[in-house]
Specification:
Elements (H helix, E strand, L loop, with lengths): L6 H6 L5 H4 L5 H11 L6 H4 L5 E6 L11 H14 L3 E6 L13 H17 L4 E6 L4 H12 L3 E5 L7 E2 L2 E2 L4 H11 L5 H9 L13 H11 L15 H20 L3 H4 L2 H14 L5 H12 L6 H7 L16 H7 L1 H11 L15 H5 L23 E4 L6 E5 L5 H7 L8 E10 L1 H7 L12 E5 L19 H5 L6 E4 L12 E5 L16 E5 L4 E4 L3 H13 L11 H9 L18 H4 L7
Helix pairs in contact: 5-11, 6-7, 7-14, 8-9, 10-13, 13-14, 13-15, 13-17
């Protein structure tokens, strides 16, 4: 369905690429631009024909194994682009691999975003296919598309195949956390630990759990930026290559229709994504990335909106880490369209929100019923009645989030089941300054850690780490694990893996490195968390808090490791906090740049 203009008007509309390749008003530059793009076989007729030129933003490489199959999928995208009358130009995106990049892949999200903005804006591209998959590739690509605002469509890479260990489903990532506990408890040795984890990625694709990768690709679809059903297709399935072809076809069509990210990424779309995130049991990293995309497209979205809009949404997807199943069964049950069908029937979505195929959400999911009610539950028979994030405030932080869908019976019994003080707990704080400090001291008996302690990890936020690290989900000391205590309350100014089932309190903002309350905390302090009131506080007097802050400032603030590369220093100087999306603050003012400016000629 065409969005802007009749087919004839669409044919007459000058394409952006024609400023490079077919500009009679500047023949000298036109000749210069054409010349080098012919040297590997493209013809002048192709580049001057008025056919849409579609960039393929390639995130697959040997450094990004979760996305590497995009190198082959790109051929199907090219076929779709060519059959629809376009021309494909493939280019690399800065690699981001969650399990490969040190100190953290989150450091590279904004770097990849900056590079992609320059490509989408400064090269002769009329539209783009954004090839996403591993956690940070999805927000990086969507942030850039939102900034430039030329037509763009997301093609996710899909999850790997399901994995089994001793006949039991074991999800990627989730298995690692269990194996770490087993090693600490003495059930397995180092060699067995490595063998178990090394066998847990049985095929191409990203995590087969509802970790950050599956979450963010589902939310790209929930936002309306992918073709319906795209996110859940397992990477090796034939349907993945088929939807790659269809995505290439659609990429040409949205250029002709002038359907831009700003037409899709409305406030209604972001509210749909928040609701979807709760229903699928999505990652705690989602608010960071979705808030970042909203900021770059100019939609107001606050961290409080995640609780206001999504907290009372039920958990419908029975998928690890919040449930039982993995990616293949989720796909066969209907994937995100089946989830959105249930939410639509319950009137929890904006059905009139426009999506990338030119149809509304209501039209797309009208017949997308779940084929397995145990994997994708009916709205009135969920796994949990409330599955959204709880947003906490207090003198520990201005905001932090807790994923309620993964609160285990063990955790609830120990921390949240006091009849005189329900859904709240107090405990003695044990504070670690970074993961190195944690690993060095967690088993030290002198710390006095017991089953009611509260573990804190600070210095691991956007500035302090830098980039924010997935290290807040700390396991208890080995002595407690051997007694059957598998989870303690964990709080921090960093993140945790979306594959983790820990109900940690995360993304504390402002972080210690920015002067947040965690910088004032000391081991031995009593802290109180109250989920009913949504608060998190150090239980000390205001006078003591003021004195500690004065002492911290006199000492030059919270100390963190020095920058080790130029990019670390650059990002630290301009990055915002996790609650605000961890964006580069100077970048937010650049919106819809393709409509505001024409890049200057280069000679």
């Amino acid at each position: 369905m065409a969005k802007n203009g009749t087919p004839q008007e669409q044919q007459q509309r000058r394409l952006r690429s024609q400023l490079w390749f077919d500009n009679p008003d500047n023949p000298g530059m036109t000749a210069l631009y054409l010349e080098r793009y012919l040297n590997y076989g493209l013809t002048r007729e192709e580049l001057t024909s008025g056919r849409p030129i579609i960039g393929i933003a390639q995130t697959g490489s040997d450094l990004s194994p979760c996305n590497r199959h995009h190198l082959e999928l790109a051929e199907r995208v090219r076929a779709g682009i060519r059959d629809a009358g376009g021309i494909a130009l493939e280019f690399p995106v800065h690699p981001i691999q969650e399990t490969g990049k040190r100190p953290t892949a989150a450091l590279d999200r904004n770097l990849a975003y900056l590079g992609l903005v320059e490509v989408l804006y400064g090269y002769p591209l009329d539209g783009a296919v954004l090839m996403t998959g591993c956690d940070k590739t999805t927000p990086a690509c969507l942030m850039a598309a939102a900034t430039v605002n030329t037509p763009a469509i997301v093609l996710s890479g899909g999850p790997m195949l399901d994995h089994y260990l001793n006949g039991k489903r074991m999800g990627s990532g989730t298995l690692i956390w269990q194996a770490r506990q087993d090693q600490a408890a003495g059930k397995i040795d180092y060699k067995e630990f490595i063998e178990i984890v090394a066998a847990s990625a049985p095929s191409i694709g990203h995590c087969n759990t509802m970790g950050t990768a599956s979450t963010m690709n589902a939310l790209a679809e929930a936002l309306g930026m992918s073709l319906p059903g795209c996110a859940a297709i397992p990477a090796p399935y034939r349907e993945r290559a088929q939807i790659a072809y269809l995505t290439g076809v659609r990429a040409v069509e949205i250029v002709r229709e002038d359907l831009k990210p700003s037409d899709i990424l409305t406030r209604a779309a972001f509210e749909n994504a928040i609701v979807a995130c709760s229903a699928i049991g999505g990652s705690t990293n989602a608010p960071i990335h979705i808030n970042a995309i909203a900021r770059h497209v100019g939609v107001e979205l606050k961290i409080e909106d995640w609780e206001k809009i999504g907290y009372d949404v039920p958990l419908l997807v029975n998928m690890q880490p919040a449930g039982e199943y993995l990616g293949e069964e989720y796909f066969r049950a209907g994937g995100l369209p089946a989830v959105m069908h249930e939410l639509m029937q319950a009137k929890r979505l904006h059905g009139d929100a426009l999506t990338i195929n030119g149809k509304t959400y209501a039209e797309n999911v009208a017949r997308s019923k779940s084929s397995d009610a145990d994997v994708i539950r009916p709205y009135d028979a969920p796994l949990k009645p409330h599955a959204g994030f709880k947003v906490l405030h207090g003198n520990l932080f201005d905001s932090a989030i807790m994923k309620t869908s993964v609160i285990s019976d063990e955790f609830r019994q120990r921390y949240l089941s006091n009849a005189k003080d329900p859904n709240a707990f107090e405990g003695r704080a044990v504070v670690f300054d970074g993961p190195e400090d944690y690993h060095r001291r967690i088993d030290d008996p002198a710390l006095g850690i017991d089953e009611h302690s509260v573990l804190f990890m600070r210095g691991v936020g956007a500035i302090g780490y830098p980039g924010s690290a997935e290290v807040v989900n700390m396991q208890p000391p080995a002595a407690l694990i051997k007694k059957g205590v598998t989870a303690l309350a964990c709080i921090g100014d960093g993140r945790q893996s979306g594959t983790s089932g820990s109900p940690s309190i995360l993304n504390a903002s402002p972080e210690a490195a920015a002067g947040g309350g965690l910088a004032l905390l000391e081991t031995g302090d009593r802290v109180r968390i109250d989920l009913n009131k949504g608060t998190g506080d150090i239980l000390i007097s205001d006078a003591e808090l003021t004195a500690r802050r004065a002492a911290l400032q006199k000492n030059g603030g919270y100390h963190y490791p020095p920058s080790q590369t130029p990019w670390q220093e650059i990002q630290r100087a301009m990055v915002d906090q996790l609650a605000e999306g961890m964006v580069l603050e100077p970048a937010v003012k650049y919106q819809r740049v393709a409509q505001k400016f024409v890049p200057r000629d280069n000679h």
